[in-house]
Amino acid sequence: MQHSPDFQLQCPIPLSDYPRVTLAHGGGGKLTHQLIAEMFAPMFDNEFLRARHDGAVLPMDGERIAFTTDSHVIQPLFFPGGDIGSLAVYGTVNDLAMCGARPLYLSLSLIIEEGLPMQTLWKVVQSIKTACERAGVKIVAGDTKVIERQNGDELFINTSGVGVIEHNLDIRPGAIHIGDRIIINGDLGLHGIAVLAQRQGLEFETTIDSDCAPLNGLVGELLRADISIHCMRDLTRGGLAGALVEIAGTAKKHISIDETKITVREDVQGACEILGFDPLFVANEGRFVLFLPPDETEKALAVMHKHPLGAGAAVIGLVDEGAPGVAARNDFGGSRVVEMFSGEQLPRIC
Ligand code: MG
Fold first, then answer.
1. Cut 0.85: pTM above it
2. CA of 79 to the centre of ligand 1 (A)
3. Which residues surround ligand 1, an ion (CB under 5 A)?
4. CATH superfamily name and code, 23-165
5. What is the pLDDT of residues 175-198, one digit of tens each?
């Protein structure tokens, strides 16, 4: 049989600009978006991928489940507040939670570089177990591969996860409405700065711990309180800015945020200034945004403030009239357009 003509189509990424994959293609900014929008999404196009959500929401015998996957290549393996093991569990748990699902089962694939100290592997495995217990999920399938020395960098972990959806809400980027308020559950920038400080050996007066945490408990409280959630998104690679720009693009809506309502710890702000980062773009692993109708915000805030991971919850913006995009109002009354960053901000942050 002849090859399908599809395989003779031209590569959709302009080869004159990018003859090879760059680190920025994995950075969660413009180039990652280009790969997804121009290569992966059209090639595998279907109604589930089209939702552009943190995971797929799939029909199953009249019920719905959520399914997602995530690979973790963070360096260093251990950082203040977490390690690659806890991150691999929470990353997938959080993506399921963002779909409005109760995470249940994970798979665990380890790609190990020959020579990794057995004690290091043991520490990571113990951390995975602790994280699973905290998040209330089970590892139910796994795989182990070892690659030759110098062909990997210590350890990569992939987890996939399944969760059940136990409500009738339609939670996805396309479900946001004009007038929706946007709530964030805490301050920004801890994970990215914690990892970078560890990697570069930077010392600050205070220790900056990653915010790495499972969000399913807090999301479960919101769902049990019957809050009409329209969309949720965790603020990982690309940070708050990346998440909002993606949601605005998918929903074809305009989002306005007020930077004065966003908390960034003084030491994190200081580190960002030294390193040349904008905290809006720095990765978090325990922060998310929630879109909901204005008359539900007080109730949602009350639920969130009672939970340790929502103590700092605040309304930071809204969906309003305007061309698709994101605008941020600052301290001085000015406003700037927020776009996805181009180039690589922080490689191997998750
Ligand atoms: Mg996510």
1. yes
2. 20
3. 54, 95, 234
4. PurM-like, N-terminal domain (3.30.1330.10)
5. 999 999 999 999 999 999 999 999
